[in-house]
Amino acid sequence: MNGMAPFAYRRVRTFAEAITALEEDPDAKVLAGGQSLVPGLKLGALHPSVVVDIGRITGHDQIERTGDHLRIGALVRHHEVATDVLVGATAPALAMAARSVGDLPVRHLGTLGGTVALAHPAADIPTMLLALGATIQCQGPGGSTRVVAAEDFFLGAFRTALGPAELVTAVQVPITGPRSATYLKYHRRAMDWALVSVAVAETPDGWHVALANAGDGILRATAVEAALRAGEAPASAAAKVGEDIDPRTDAWGTAAYRRRLTPVLVRRALEQVGEP
Amino acid sequence: MRPTTSCSLVVNGATHEASVDPRMLLVAFLRDVLELTGTAVGCDTSACGACTVLLDGESVKSCSLLVMQADGRKVTTIEGLAGADGPHPLQEAFHRAHALQCGYCTPGMIMAAASFLREQPDPTSEGVRRGLVGNLCRCTGYHNIVRAVLDAAPALRQQGST
Q1: Is the CB of residue B57 less than 8 Å away from at least one CB of chain A?
Q2: B76-91 per-position pLDDT tens digit
Q3: Cα A269 to Cα A9, A41, A185, distances in angstroms
Q4: A34 and B46: CB-CB below 8 Å?
Q5: Is the pTM of this model over 0.90?
Q6: Shortest CA distance to B67 belongs to which of B106, B104, B21?
């Protein structure tokens, strides 16, 4: 049916139940908003034995300020991140990134935990989280929990630090002090994935520059960051990005084009945040 | 034997219960089970928006979610948009502005616009274009669609809801 192999459907009420289901069946797949899972199922690319629907779990759809951080539950939809007043006030660049995901219907269903766990190499929100120095809260078997820094969480295209029966439960974004940050997405058609995108944020340990679709997965442009720490101007620092990237050729652009495009976007993003 | 699961949805105000294959998409439930064929399948790859309906008042692409995701929730299709006293302002505006030619994208376009205007009741034309990026039209060049959405906005602001 629809190009999909048959699967069983199981709706769970807690993350613990979902984790148990994943432990019991390594071929299970988790359904949150389904905006990546359902297209993948339709393409015949995924063949789960059971789809575990976590979309009705309560208590993980809140956005709240907890001291120095903004805590966003894994089941918060992109549209809420894009329009929430607290996000707009404390992490507006994250709202920018969320606003640029797909289109409005996709943003109505897609979830923060879903995009973080998938780690698509062109994903907007994970790229911004990487620049913001966010931390990812995870839950695993036996009620175990751990917190992983974004730079240790995103390991490459569709690869994260999550274990096979581990789920993202929340993301925390540091929000103390005045911060400059911006998200710049380049694509030729409005609904396309980023050809390349740049997230820049001022953090307590200096500027972070994160890139989407310029390498294997989302990445930090450490050569650019070092140049900024050394006091180089945006154009000069941006030019160093060639050392950080290994872009691919795909249907939307060649590696060579991405290589030409990336330093231009990095420079523009740095100028946007008024990096001296 | 194929797995089945049961669902219950309110579609255009009426409750429908069914036993379904878990693989069934919302669009297939609407078109094939309920025979509400106003909602079209265009690209079937989540791009064109011809399949757009409202789920609890928010636009979703019905080809891109399982019917089980709509279980226990309210769905509105193009057939359910008009009120007892006549066509919805968007339907009237699309007619007046000649915002359709073949009409294939039109139900999805109108449902997407209805959801968009709920969230941005007084948009600019640029805002409308951004708000409807998920809906493609091959016939009109979008100009009259944007006009129609802007034309419908004041009446909807007055109504206060869709």
Answers
A1: no
A2: 999 999 988 899 999 9
A3: 44, 36, 10
A4: no
A5: yes
A6: B21
